[in-house]
Design goal:
By secondary structure, the chain is mainly α. It has 2 domains: about 1-175, Rossmann fold, CATH 3.40.50; about 185-265. About 50% of the residues lie in helices and about 5% in strands. It has helices at about 1-10, 35-45, 55-60, 65, 70-75, 80-95, 100-110, 130-140, 155-160, 165-170, 185-195, 205-215, 220-230, 255-265, and strands spanning about 15-20, 115-120, 145-150.
Length: about 270
C-alpha cells in the first residue's frame, strides 16, 4: 500500500519510503536504533545526485546528525570554501544546546524548502521515543512546512509495546491526524497480493487456506509471509504447489513479539 502511495506522489512531492527495523529481542523495552526512519529519509535525499538542496541541507543541520549518516563523506565534493564553512558551522553548533531530535526536525523542514515532502514509514509500531519526539516537534507545534507523514502500523503492537507512540496519537488534535484502518484481508485480496509477490503463483486452495490459517487475514502478517516466501517460492514453474515449503518454521518477528507480550500479561 505504501509503495502505491509513494508512486502516486512522486510527481508532486519528494516521497521517501522507509521502514522501521524490528527491535532486537523480546524484552518489554525493545532495543531500537534512535531516529532510524528519519536518518534514513535524510540519507535517501542526500544520496540522490539530482537533489539541489544537498549542500544547503548539510550547512543547516547539526554535525552530530550528519555523523549518523554514513554516506555523507562520499557524497560531497568538499572544497576549501565548504570546509571553511563547515568549521565555522561546527563552532556555532558546539555552542548550541539543541538536541539531535531538534536538529533532525530542522533537517526535515529544510528539505521542504524547494519541494513538498512526504515521508512514508512502514512498521511504525517500532518507532523509538526520539523519533516520536521529532513528530511532536513538527506536527504538534504546527511547524509551517509542506511536510506530511504517513505511518503504517499494527495498532495492537503500539498498544502493547510503544507507549510513547500511543500517547502521541492520543495527544494529536483531530485536524492533525487521519486514521485509515485496514480490515482483515479476504481470500480474493490475498490471492491478488500473492500474484504480485510469488513467482508462478496460481490460486490454490491448499496454499490459500494455509496462509489464512497462519495469519488470520492480518495484512501485515500476510505481507511478512509473502516477502519471505518470495525467496523460497512454493510454486513450480508450471504453477504446481510444492507443499513441503509450507512446513516452514518461519514466523514474522512482529507475531513473536505480540505473542510474547500477551503471554506476559497472562
Amino acid at each position: 500500500m505504501l509503495e502505491h502511495c509513494q508512486a502516486a506522489l512522486r510527481q508532486r512531492a519528494r516521497a521517501v519510503l522507509v521502514g522501521c527495523p524490528t527491535p532486537i529481542g523480546l524484552q518489554s523495552e525493545p532495543l531500537v536504533q534512535p531516529l532510524y526512519p528519519f536518518v534514513k529519509a535524510i540519507e535517501h535525499v542526500l544520496s540522490d545526485p539530482h537533489q539541489k538542496a544537498k549542500r544547503r541541507l548539510v550547512m543547516n543541520i547539526g554535525l552530530s546528525v550528519l555523523g549518523m549518516i554514513p554516506l555523507v563523506g562520499s557524497l560531497f565534493d568538499v572544497t576549501k570554501e565548504v570546509m571553511r564553512d563547515m568549521r565555522e558551522y561546527r563552532r556555532e553548533t558546539e555552542k548550541s544546546q539543541s538536541s539531535q531530535t531538534e536538529q533532525v526536525a530542522q533537517a526535515l523542514k529544510e528539505l521542504t524548502s524547494d519541494m513538498p515532502m512526504v515521508i512514508l514509514i512502514d512498521d511504525a509500531q517500532w518507532l523509538d521515543a526520539a523519533s516520536v519526539h521529532v513528530l511532536e516537534q513538527l506536527v504538534q507545534r504546527h511547524v509551517r512546512a509542506p511536510l506530511v507523514f504517513i505511518l503504517a502500523y499494527e495498532r495492537s503492537l503500539v498498544q502493547a509495546q510503544n507507549r510513547a507512540l500511543e500517547g502521541y496519537f492520543a495527544s494529536l488534535e483531530n485536524d492533525a491526524l487521519m486514521n485509515v484502518e485496514l480490515p482483515l484481508m479476504t481470500r480474493s485480496e490475498i490471492q491478488q497480493l500473492a500474484q504480485r509477490y510469488l513467482a508462478h503463483y496460481r490460486p490454490n486452495p491448499l496454499f490459500d487456506d494455509w496462509l489464512l490459517q497462519q495469519t488470520g487475514g492480518v495484512p501485515a502478517l500476510i505481507l511478512s509471509y509473502l516477502q519471505y516466501l518470495a525467496q523460497h517460492s512454493p510454486f513450480e514453474p508450471d504453477g504446481s504447489l510444492n507443499s513441503d515449503v509450507l512446513k516452514t518454521n518461519y514466523r514474522p518477528a512482529s507475531l513473536f513479539a505480540l505473542v510474547a507480550r500477551r503471554t506476559c500479561w497472562a
